[in-house]
Automatic annotation (TrEMBL):
InterPro entries per UniProt: HAD-like_SerB, HAD-like_sf, HAD_sf
Signal peptide: 1-20
Protein name from the UniProt record: Haloacid dehalogenase-like hydrolase
Top-rank taxon, per record: Bacteria
Gene3D superfamilies linked to this entry: HAD superfamily/HAD-like
Organism whose genome encodes this protein: Dryocola boscaweniae
Length: 329
């Protein structure tokens, strides 16, 4: 009887411990330990590494760091689906080689069109509409589309370990921001629900909107004027513009995030933390670094992480789950 009671007690203790682990989707690896150790050091007032709560700003890339960017980024997938939805209303588009390639799912031709082709798709699907109408289109797309490989909606595909990490940091007094090359208006529709990050803490690529009075009040209409691409060296610029102070931790996954990690690491006042997500799991997600399917090249970042002591997360080895199994197969 005593042995049964002891076994039951041990099982209960194990279950409670698992439930209490805020990073339960992470394996107990060096990456998880590095995160926990840094947070403990930063939040313990008795240590020289203590960071005051009003300075605990941390920044996250989005594509490839919080949700997948392969085989296409979600925003490009949205643009493709919008082109297909709107094409019957615009017969003049059929003569455009980039649009024609989209309609044929010929993404090699789309890729070969480069930045010019991408900007063309964005102009057709992201401009000359009000900001409210654009947000509604994104919401409608999320409600009506799902990822074919994983069988779940795009707003259910936030990486479970990273979502736990966001919660863990906030529970310890950190303010979480998104600093991403993705479109600011696109991400703001999804970030609160997916990550618990409010719109004012989402910073991304943008172009200027135009204000006007209407019979019903006012409106902002999206344009392609004054485009700002929030990637690479532009990320520290955006951090300064929108946040007004240097972060104490930065999380990314590609060489496009290097400037953000370097800017954070150079914080003269605090011991900072840097982390790169390395996509190594072809079975549960995708595996790439030097040759990504669309974006997210990671070459220099791996070298610099070793030099700077940044944490590199091996997705295959460090994560118990990639997506929430209750949502995605």
């Amino acid at each position: 009887m005593k042995s049964k009671i002891l076994i039951s007690a041990l099982l209960l203790s194990y279950v409670c411990s698992a439930q209490a682990d805020p990073l339960s989707a992470w394996n107990d690896s060096a990456s998880k330990q590095a995160i926990e150790q840094w947070v403990q050091n930063a939040t313990n007032q008795d240590r020289s590494t203590f960071i005051p709560p009003d300075k605990r700003y941390v920044v996250f890339d989005n594509d490839g760091t919080l949700w997948p960017e392969a085989p296409l980024t979600f925003q490009l997938r949205f643009a493709v689906d919008e082109i297909k939805r709107l094409a019957p209303e615009h017969p003049e588009w059929k003569n455009d080689p980039v649009v024609s390639a989209v309609l044929k799912d010929d993404f090699r031709t789309v890729a070969q069109s480069g930045e010019k082709g991408l900007m063309q798709l964005l102009e057709l699907t992201h401009s000359n509409i009000t900001t409210d109408e654009f947000a509604q289109r994104v919401s409608n797309w999320v409600d009506s589309h799902q990822d074919q490989r994983f069988g779940c909606r795009y707003d259910q595909m936030g990486y479970q370990p990273m979502r736990q990490l966001l919660d863990y940091l906030r529970d310890n007094g950190f303010k979480t921001w998104i600093i991403s090359g993705g479109g600011i208006d696109f991400m703001r529709v999804l970030a609160q629900k997916m990550y618990g990050i409010p719109p004012e803490q989402v910073v991304g690529s943008f172009s200027l909107s135009e204000f006007s009075l209407t019979d019903n009040g006012t409106q902002l209409r999206k344009t392609m004027k004054g485009a700002f691409n929030d990637d690479a060296a532009a990320k520290p610029v955006a951090i300064h513009l929108f946040m007004g102070q240097r972060p104490v931790a930065a999380f990314g996954n590609s060489d496009g995030d290097l400037a953000m990690l370097q800017y954070t690491a150079a914080n003269p006042d605090f011991r900072t933390f840097g982390l790169l997500v390395h996509h190594t799991d072809a079975e549960r997600e995708y595996a790439y670094d030097s040759h990504p399917p669309a974006s997210g090249k990671l070459i220099e970042g791996l070298k610099m992480a070793q030099e700077k002591g940044w944490t590199v997360v091996d997705m295959k080895q460090d994560w118990k789950t990639v997506f929430d199994p209750a949502l995605c197969k």
